[in-house]
Design a protein that fits this description.
Elements (H helix, E strand, L loop, with lengths): L10 H38 L18 H6 L1
């Protein structure tokens, strides 16, 4: 093959499987990258419409009472 590695009679199969594995991993990387961009756009759209995350630290309206606190009193 010219690489200095003797792969024997199965060299074509070995190289093809490595190429296929590389292609699959690269497709997954691209898919995650595209999904990341899509999710960031969706989040920016929601925030532009005024929807905020609960973890943003904005004072929220009082929710339903916690039954555990009421039973302890």
């Amino acid at each position: 093959m010219g690489l200095g590695i003797a792969l024997g009679p199965h060299a074509v199969f070995i190289v093809a499987v490595y190429a296929l594995a590389f292609a699959v991993v690269m497709m997954l990387v691209v898919w995650v990258w595209i999904d990341h961009r899509r999710q960031r756009r969706l989040l920016a759209d929601l925030e532009a419409r005024g929807v905020r995350r609960r973890s943003a630290g904005v004072a929220s309206s009082p929710g339903p009472a916690d039954p555990m606190k009421e039973s302890a009193a």
